[in-house]
């Protein structure tokens, strides 16, 4: 029985990185022991590097392949849990240099977006691709410098992750701009004098709406013209017409008749007119909207 020893190493100057890699390898030890594969890790120090000695059980090529794959998964997990957050931190600080106090929230938001993207698009398969590359490398060489492998061997991974990171930062920036815009509109609403007591917003699905005053008559252009000019040149969303009409009408209350409460325009109206929104739970107007939706 010939035991194979694989050596993984990291510089000892970053104890946090060393600890992360140990924990990731240890998880694979537990996973393989559960499957009946003897696999253990030991730690040594040679010069300025920490060496992890990973022994398989000498149970043949099938078990060696499992061990190599397990080591690959550990490296992939290490990259995700330690390396990627550092890449995100650098990207966020570069993109938002004047927001140091909000960088933690931005980093969490960007990492969360990337995680969701990975779950929605399994074809990315970054972890499995990394594990495959590590396993293939260890089949040819028993020694792997993890930091050098990440820097020089994972070019494909870096291309994919860089694109994901750019998208995530862009989405976060757009979300921040959206929030700032909503705050501006909420302030605008708070400074207005009420012009119309109640406006009913009938939502017929997608971006189809009908606005009515409290007496059941349609909201006319003459009821809303002019007031929104006070906002100056600030940009509006694609739903300009419905939002502009409500802002100009300056209602005391907005009654929403909709079955799609999570649609973007509905959420926007609810945020802008927070404290003035009444969500209808079902009435003749709602049934009218539902019937029109069905006919469409």
What would you note in describing this structure?
- This protein is α/β, with parallel strands linked by helices and 296 residues long.
- The protein folds into two domains: 5-184, no CATH class; 192-295.
- 56% of the residues lie in helices and 16% in strands.
- It has ten helices and eight strands.
- It has helices at residues 15-34, 61-95, 103-120, 126-140, 146-152, 155-191, 221-224, 240-249, 264-272, 284-295, and strands at residues 5-11, 40-46, 49-55, 143-145, 196-203, 209-213, 251-257, 277-279.
- The strands form two sheets. The protein has a four-stranded mixed beta sheet. The chain has a four-stranded mixed beta sheet with strand order 6-5-7-8.
- A hairpin with a 5-residue loop joins strand 5 (196-203) and strand 6.
- The protein is elongated and about 90 Å long.
- Mean pLDDT is 86; it is low at 227-238.
Give a brief rundown of this model.
The chain has ten helices and eight strands. It has helices spanning 15-34, 61-95, 103-120, 126-140, 146-152, 155-191, 221-224, 240-249, 264-272, 284-295; strands at 5-11, 40-46, 49-55, 143-145, 196-203, 209-213, 251-257, 277-279. The protein has a four-stranded mixed sheet with strand order 2-3-1-4. A four-stranded mixed sheet has the order 6-5-7-8.
How much helix, percentage-wise, in residues? 55-70%
The coarse silhouette is elongated
Q: Quote the average pLDDT.
A: 86
Spatially, the strands of the biggest sheet line up as 2-3-1-4
For the largest beta-sheet, the strand count, sense and barrel status come to: 4 strands, mixed
Unreliable segments of 5+ consecutive residues: 227-238
Gyration radius (Cα, Å) is 29 Å
Strand content: 15-25%
- How many individual helices? 10
Structural class: alpha/beta
Number of domains: 2
Q: Give the SSE string.
A: EHEEHHHEHHEEHHEHEH
What is the strand tally? 8
Distance between the termini: 73 Å
């Amino acid at each position: 029985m010939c035991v194979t020893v694989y050596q993984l190493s990291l510089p000892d100057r970053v104890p946090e990185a060393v600890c992360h890699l140990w924990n990731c390898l240890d998880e694979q030890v537990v996973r393989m022991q559960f499957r009946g594969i003897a696999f253990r890790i030991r730690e040594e120090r040679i010069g300025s590097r920490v060496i992890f000695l990973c022994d398989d059980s000498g149970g043949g090529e099938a078990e060696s392949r499992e061990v190599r794959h397990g080591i690959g998964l550990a490296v992939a997990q290490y990259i995700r849990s330690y390396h990627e957050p550092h890449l995100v931190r650098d990207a966020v600080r570069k993109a938002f240099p004047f927001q140091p106090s909000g960088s933690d929230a931005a980093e969490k938001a960007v990492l969360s977006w990337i995680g969701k993207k990975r779950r929605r698009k399994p074809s990315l398969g970054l972890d499995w691709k990394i594990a495959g590359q590590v396993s293939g490398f260890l089949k040819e060489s028993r020694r792997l410098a993890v930091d050098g492998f990440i820097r020089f061997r994972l070019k494909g991974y870096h291309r994919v992750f860089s694109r994901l990171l750019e998208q995530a930062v862009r989405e976060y920036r757009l979300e921040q701009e959206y929030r700032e815009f909503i705050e501006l509109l909420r302030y605008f609403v708070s400074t207005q004098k009420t012009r119309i007591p109640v406006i009913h917003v009938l939502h017929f699905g997608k971006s189809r709406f009908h606005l009515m005053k409290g007496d059941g008559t349609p909201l006319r252009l003459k009821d809303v013209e002019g007031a929104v000019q006070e906002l100056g040149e600030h940009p509006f969303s694609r739903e300009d017409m419905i939002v502009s009409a409500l802002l100009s009408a300056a209602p005391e209350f907005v009654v929403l008749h909709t079955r799609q409460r999570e649609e973007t325009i509905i959420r926007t109206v609810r945020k802008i007119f927070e404290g003035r929104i009444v969500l209808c739970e079902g009435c003749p107007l709602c049934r009218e909207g539902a019937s029109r939706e069905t006919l469409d």
